[in-house]
Known about the structure:
By secondary structure, this protein is α/β, with parallel strands linked by helices. Helices cover about 35% and strands about 25% of the residues.
Amino acid sequence: MKIAILGFGTVGSGAYEAAKSAPGIEVKRIVDLRDFPDYRDILTKDINDVLDDDEIELVAECMGGVHPAYEFVTGAMRRGKHVVTPNKNLVSACYDELMACAAENGVEFRFTPAAGGGIPWLYNLMRSRRCDEILEVHGIVNGTCNYILDNMHTNGADFAAVLAEAQALGYAERDPSADIDGHDTLRKCVISSNIAFDARLREEDIPTFGIRSITAEDVAWCNANGYTCKLLMNAGLAGDALYAYVEPELFTADALESGVKANFNLITLTGVNVGPLSFYGQGAGMMPTGTSLVQDMIDIAAGIGFAPADGGTAHTLDNTKVAHRYYFRGSDLSGLPASVIAEQFARGSDTVVLTAPISVTAAHQFAADCAARGIDFFMAGINE
C-alpha cells in the first residue's frame, strides 16, 4: 500500500520511521511547506500531488488543527483514499462529517491515536462495546498536565516553575493553554464518549476546568491529607442520560490514578460484562503515536475494520445526575450556599471549603461565576 503523510512534524516523522518496519507500507509522498533536504525526492508542498495520484491508497493526516486538515482529509476520501489521523482537534470538532464522508465514499477513516497516543485505547474501547454495554469512561489523558502535577506533588514546586520546566523539556507547548486549561482533555473526552456511548457530543456542551490556577499550597494540602491531584476526563451513563465533564480530581493513595507518574496516561472503561479495564502507557510522543498510526494503516491493509456504530444516539447530557464532594479554594467564596459547606478554613487571604456532595453542574457553574467576577479560584472533585 502506497501512502502519503501530510505534515512532517513530530508525529508525521514518527509515522514515517514506524512505516519503514511495516510490511507492505510504502511512503510515496510527504506534504509539508518546510524543506527537508533528506526527503526531497518524495517531498511536495502541493496537496494535489497526493489527491491526483491514483497509486496513493491512504493518507496519514498529521498536520494538526481543523483547517485545512478537514478539506485535505475529505478531499482524499472523496477520491477513494483511506485516511488515518492522530488529530484530536479535527476528530472532535468534525466527527459526524468525517464519519459520513468515509461511509459515502466506501473508505476507512481511523483515528486511534487521537485519544491515548501510543495506547490502544480507542481500538479496545470499540472492541469492548461490540458485545457489552459501556457504563463509564474516565482517565488521565494529558501527559503535560500529569507531568506538572506529579512534579508539584513530588518536589513541592510552584505551578509556573514546573510549567517552564515542562516547556524546556518539550512536554508543553510555548502556548500551553490547550493542555493546562483542559481543552486537550476535553477533545479526548468527546472522542471517547462518542465511541463508548454512540453519542454525538460537542465540545461546547461539556463543562471543563483545568489546572492553570492550582498552587503549591493546594498541592501541599493534598499531600498532607493523603490525596493526589490529577486532571481527569469523565463520561458515563446515568439512567437514560449521559454525563461528561473535565476537572481536576483528588485520589487517595490506593487509587490507580495516584501512581501515574511523569507524562504517562491511564484510561479506564467499565462495562456491564467485563467490569473495569484500564490502559496505561505513553499518551503522546513521536514514536508511540507514530507507531499507533501505522497500526491503523496495517489494519486497513489487512481488511480489519474499525467502524463505530452507525448513527448517533440522542443522549441528553445531564451533569446534575452525578455528584461528589469538592475542594474549593478562592479569594472570595461568599457566593457559595451555606448548605453545601461541610468544612471551611482560612489560608492567608484565601478561603478553602470542603463541600458536601454537590452536582457537577453546580460546581462548574460556581467556577464560572468566580471567573466572571475575576476571583482567583481552584477546584477539584474528591474521588471516593
